[in-house]
Design goal:
Layout (H helix, E strand, L loop, with lengths): L2 H12 L2 H11 L25 E7 L3 H9 L3 E5 L3 E7 H6 L7 E6 H8 L13 H13 L5 E8 L5 E7 L13 E5 L7 H16 L4 H7 L3 E5 L4 H8 L54 H11 L4 E9 L3 E4 L11 H18 L2 E4 L10 H9 L2 E7 L11 H17 L10
Parallel strand pairs: 7-8, 7-9, 9-12, 10-11
Antiparallel strand pairs: 1-3, 1-4, 2-3, 5-6, 6-8, 10-12
Bound molecules: zinc ion.
Zinc ion binds next to loops.
């Protein structure tokens, strides 16, 4: 949300009688009635065809103009220096000139929504869609060219680049490295938008503190990769109408016209033997064969080309869990030394997040996930974090805490990436 728009919301909120009343109740210690539901009229595009409202920009010089416009029926959403913009009904709009107001531009709410609501619902504007994610990664890289570089690990099914930010002051882009590497990923599942925020927050945290000795030692010794949005098609599809679709998979159009393959069941680790479905309509559809999807194929090639990767974190949401292999076998790891490393890492990380550490299959057995495959094929200490929030859409307010705590856990993971086996000695 723009800052001016925030000011507008604040301005409007403070002048909203219901809010004032609520505030008085809170101050008086009276239990407050729940705030009214968000107006969902804007959220379903097709519902807007019959809506008589317009989205208009009107010249307004000061707070007196703006007050008068509110009284004339304009629902002010954004305030700029010389104009305000918002929603108004057709009949009210037609009276504005008579009140002395000059309208700069106007369009029906349907025209407006078609252009602008292929995005997060307005209440969740703090989340980054694909374009914003790319811009953020580019900005972080541009501001830190001494230590950061950005490259694509491949295209999604619909042709979006899957970007990976690399933090390594010596080797840039796709140049190989012998430094021990850590690989962080988000958004395998479309609707788990908070995971993208945590991965972006981690990148920002490390780059903002690149000269702090605590962080610098990892930058000077490790090779760090962060791919926040590994399923960009799905993430965009989920928010495309301005109303969440609760979409999990990618956007593969299956033979039966259903949409999507579950990317976290599409890896080649006992592929589709348990906890996954061969039915294309299922949310856990494993795909026609392992690595059938470009999004998982991208990660396969990326990991196979980088044998220096020692640790991996794949962010999912939500359940407050930290999971480690096996996911696809209902037995503990045979390798007791590896198990000790996994258990120790998990215990240390949940000290920061408060999540519950456990072997993945203690939750349910599911084959074909990222972490089983990464451990099985490359011996990587690979984890799945199921973030907090209690819902797929916990709102903007959930971002800060999730980022703060999970960044601490991620920095711990960096601290043991150079030599994970020291935890078993
Ligand atoms: Zn998930």
């Amino acid at each position: 949300m723009k800052r001016l728009a925030l000011i507008a919301v604040l301005f409007f909120t403070l002048h909203n009688p219901a809010f004032t009343q609520l505030l008085a109740q809170v101050n008086a210690g009276i239990p407050a009635a729940p705030l009214p539901e968000q107006d969902t009229a804007l959220s379903a595009l097709e519902d807007l065809k019959g809506d008589s409202r317009y989205w208009i920009t009107v010249f307004a010089e000061d707070k007196y103009d703006r007050t008068a416009l509110l009284e004339a029926g304009l629902d002010i959403v954004e305030i700029d220096k010389k104009t305000v913009t918002g929603f108004i009904t057709g009949p009210e709009m037609n009276l504005l000139a008579g009140h002395g107001f000059i309208t700069q531009s106007r369009q029906t709410i349907y025209e407006y929504a078609k252009k602008h609501f292929k995005d997060f619902p307005a209440v969740d504007a703090a989340y980054h869609n694909y374009k914003e994610t790319v811009e953020k990664l580019q900005a972080l890289t541009a501001a830190n060219v001494d230590v950061a570089s950005l490259f694509s690990i491949g295209k999604s099914l619909e042709g979006r680049e899957v970007w990976c930010l690399r933090i390594n002051p010596v080797e840039k882009g796709e140049t190989p490295s012998t430094r021990p590497a850590a690989f962080f990923m988000g958004n395998h599942h479309a609707r788990e938008h908070l995971t993208n925020e945590v991965a972006l927050g981690l990148a920002e945290h490390l780059l903002e503190r690149k000269n702090d000795p605590e962080i610098r030692k990892y930058l000077d010794t490790l090779d760090i990769y962060i791919a926040p949005m590994t399923n960009p098609d799905g993430a965009e599809y989920d928010i495309q109408t301005g109303k969440y679709r609760w979409h999990r998979k990618n956007t593969r159009v299956n033979a039966n016209k259903s949409i999507g393959v579950d990317l976290n069941r599409n890896y080649d680790s006992r592929w589709c033997q348990a906890g996954a479905s061969h039915s294309p309509s299922a949310d856990t559809y494993c795909g026609p064969y392992a690595f059938s999807e470009p999004e998982t194929e991208n990660i396969k090639k990326f990991v196979e080309a980088r044998r220096n990767i020692k640790t991996l974190m794949s962010y999912h949401s939500y359940s407050d869990l930290l999971l480690y292999p096996w996911a696809g076998k209902d037995v503990p790891l045979d390798n007791r030394r590896d198990l000790k490393v996994f258990e120790t890492m998990a215990r240390e990380m949940v000290a920061f997040t408060g999540y519950t550490p456990q072997q993945s299959s203690d939750l349910y057995v599911a084959t074909g996930d990222t972490t089983d495959w990464a451990y099985d094929t490359a011996g990587i200490f690979a984890f799945t974090t199921e973030l907090e929030g209690g819902t797929f859409y916990p709102g903007a307010a959930a971002i800060n805490k999730a980022v703060t705590n999970n960044v601490k856990a991620a920095v711990y993971l960096l601290s043991v990436t150079e030599d994970p086996y020291k935890l078993a000695r």
